[in-house]
Specification:
The structure is a single chain. It contains 31 helices and 13 strands. By secondary structure, the protein is an alpha/beta fold. Among the domains are: 162 residues; 158 residues, no CATH class. It has a 5-stranded mixed sheet, sandwiched between helices. The protein has a 4-stranded mixed sheet with strand order 1-2-4-3. The longest helix has 25 residues. The radius of gyration is 30 Å and the shape is globular. This is AbrB family transcriptional regulator. It comes from Haloferax mediterranei (strain ATCC 33500 / DSM 1411 / JCM 8866 / NBRC 14739 / NCIMB 2177 / R-4) (Halobacterium mediterranei).
Length: 669
């Protein structure tokens, strides 16, 4: 870990943060985190906004989107709609940027937040998809891309407008990749080439009419064409649309009015932007998990471990409340609450598992036989661990010499009078992972009192189903003494390794969580023409959330045919799951795709149509109108759009299952 002094006038701020950076890294590792090394940079207000515009990196390719994002962020800050405190990128080592105008409390919060993000980057499997061996240098990659595209922009033989137009077209498809596979695996999907017009090829050859009639008769030509058409058909939709266009796309030449081969610079730019899409995919797929993970450990370090000083805590608490209390679907709040719920349910199951092994206690009589107040008292942290401070070192020395909760090396240094140890500010140095897990055991926190009591009989029955040594303990006291208080954190780290937002919500967003945290679903009402609460039922809330995070919350589009109707046309399909496309936006994207394909492009989708009379009747009766679904194909030929009814066999191919969010790799979960 290192601290970079970015400018001369930031040296004072950087010097003040050297110690928090060092101590936050040590505390994070004591808590069981394993982050990449982090380089911290102090930047000013304008530099921070530029970094945000660039997605957390100092150099990106030339394009107008960065200026637009910069202006939006600057106005957001200026008008109090959101201030940027930090930005961190996924790299090895990671780079984090701190705004020099932030208070010390905010800087400490950012540093603890960043350490948790870096741990998530390093250990989550989805981030490893980008690099098979886990080794990569994202900043260097993006800088190389920026320089290469800048050279094309400056090349007098290449029009700058054409470069920007091409980038615009590719960016419309930047999320149409196969994000559940690595970029190399997705690229390995190869299809036979799209058949060329054999007759046109023969016309270009110097062949006599007699030879052509004799050797290349119509029957032979039709047979070859049919064979090539069959060989070129896609056996299944290609999710990596960018890769397919890279293989088969062309460009429409305004001068010749024909589809021509892409220029080498176009293929190069497409390759670079596709690579960047795969790099950023993991961050988009794990927004709730990642932000919730960082918010959880930041809160524990800043609040529970008093990393925020007494004079800093109010400022920190106020700013965290604003972050977690922002309206709408808040990934920080949802993620943090889910991680806390996982911790609590894991610890609850571990305690229940021990109690079910007490003689006389079964899943049927559990709530009658267990004195939950007694259990709560028995779970309380050992006072020697809970009350650690600089003047209580002797209490730890009285514990067993092999007590796993105590860092005996640090304890020996403290007892020998090592004045380099600041135990007044950092008493956690005296504890190990096991000691900190007991010190912060979730079930003894005031907000979680009663959580153990709420365990359902169905969960108890499941726990006891494969329990053979159910007479292991003679008393509740003996059973509770055997509870492993690291279980919750251990389970959290396991989950952090393998899930993405969709699988995370699918697995852990339960009816109990939705009820306790007061989540609900809302939708736009056609009858009242405003948004309204549609349901607070668990299944509806879960389904709504899962749809919002499937495919980054965007429509899933795939290639279904590269030679549609045997005319070299591209056929894309919207994998419909009940959520309709914005037709106006879809047409705008087709215009850009035409620029990449060079020939007519088609998009299959399903629309919902509402009858005006039905809407009025529904409004009077206080219900929602029932739409009629219709499958259509939108075609764009470079000049105008056409809309056709979709053939039934194609309609079946784009219809997704009722809930299309099962994206778990079978070999991971």
């Amino acid at each position: 870990m290192s601290f970079r002094r970015h400018r001369r006038d930031a040296q004072r701020e950087a010097a003040q943060l050297d110690e928090p950076v060092r101590e936050a890294g040590e505390l994070a590792r004591k808590l069981g985190l394993d982050p990449y090394p982090v380089n911290y940079w102090v930047v000013n207000y304008d530099e921070m906004n530029q970094l945000i515009a660039y997605g957390g990196f100092q150099e990106r390719y030339p394009h107008w989107r960065w200026g637009m994002t910069y202006d939006r962020q600057r106005k957001s800050d200026q008008f109090g709609m959101g201030k940027a405190f930090e930005i961190v990128n996924n790299d090895d080592p990671a780079n984090a940027f701190l705004q020099e105008s932030n208070s010390l409390a905010d800087q400490k919060a950012v540093i603890t937040h960043v350490e948790a993000h870096s741990d998530f980057f390093k250990n989550n499997q989805w981030f490893r998809l980008f690099s098979d061996d886990g080794q990569f240098a994202a900043a260097a990659m993006l800088e190389q891309h920026a320089q290469a595209i800048e050279r094309y922009v400056q090349n007098p033989d290449v029009s700058r407008d054409e470069v920007e137009k091409f980038i615009d077209a590719v960016l419309c498809l930047e999320d149409t990749i196969d994000q559940h596979r690595s970029i190399r695996e997705a690229a390995a999907d190869t299809d036979s080439r799209i058949p060329e017009d054999i007759r046109a090829q023969l016309d270009s050859l110097d062949i006599s009419d007699d030879v052509r009639r004799e050797v290349f008769d119509e029957e032979w030509l039709e047979g070859v064409e049919e064979a090539e058409r069959e060989a070129a058909k896609l056996t299944k939709p290609r999710k990596d649309v960018l890769a397919y266009i890279r293989e088969h796309g062309m460009r429409y030449d305004d001068e010749t009015e024909k589809a021509e081969e892409m220029e080498p610079w176009q293929k190069d730019v497409l390759d670079m932007l596709r690579e960047e899409s795969y790099y950023f995919a993991a961050q988009k797929m794990t927004k709730v998990m990642n932000e919730g993970w960082a918010a959880y450990w930041e809160s524990l370090m800043m609040g529970d471990e008093h990393f925020a000083g007494t004079d800093e805590f109010i400022t920190y608490a106020d700013h965290q409340a604003r972050v977690l209390g922002s309206p709408g679907l808040n990934p920080y709040k949802l993620g943090k609450e889910l991680w806390e719920y996982i911790e609590n349910t894991t610890n609850r199951a571990a305690v229940a598992d021990k109690l079910l092994r007490v003689k006389g206690i079964t899943w049927r009589n559990f709530h009658d036989m267990v004195d939950f107040e007694e259990v709560q008292q028995l779970l309380r942290t050992d006072p020697a661990i809970d009350g650690i401070h600089a003047d209580a070192v002797d209490d730890l020395a009285d514990l067993s010499e092999d007590d796993p909760r105590v860092d005996h090396e640090v304890l020996d240094r403290a007892l020998s009078g090592d004045d380099t140890l600041d135990l007044e500010r950092y008493p956690w140095k005296l504890l190990t992972y096991e000691g900190l897990a007991e010190r912060h055991y979730s079930l003894i926190k005031p907000q979680n009192r009663g959580f153990l009591r709420r365990i359902r009989r169905s969960e108890l029955e499941q726990l006891s189903r494969y329990m053979f040594d159910d007479d292991q303990y003679d008393s509740i006291e003996e059973a509770v003494a055997d509870v492993d208080k690291t279980t919750g954190w251990d389970r959290m780290r396991e989950i952090r390794e393998s899930h993405n937002d969709v699988t995370f919500l699918d697995a852990f967003l339960t009816e109990e969580f939705v009820r306790d945290n007061h989540y609900f679903a809302y939708e736009y009402s056609r009858s009242s023409q405003q948004f309204r609460v549609s349901s607070s039922e668990y299944e509806d809330v879960k389904k709504k959330l899962l749809f919002q995070f499937t495919n980054f919350g965007k429509p899933t589009i795939a290639v279904y045919d590269g030679n549609f109707d045997n005319r070299g046309e591209l056929l894309l399909g919207h994998q419909y799951n009940g959520v309709i496309l914005d037709k106006k936006q879809a047409k705008g994207v087709l215009e850009r795709v035409y620029h990449l394909w060079g020939r007519p492009v088609n998009l299959m989708t399903i629309i919902k149509e509402f009858d005006d009379h039905e809407i009025e009747v529904a409004r009077r009766r206080g219900r929602e109108p029932t739409p009629v679904e219709r499958a259509i194909r939108i075609r764009y030929d470079g000049d105008e759009f056409e809309e056709h009814d979709l053939d039934s066999d194609l309609e079946e191919r784009i219809a997704a299952s009722d809930i299309d969010y099962d994206t778990k790799p079978d070999d991971w979960l």
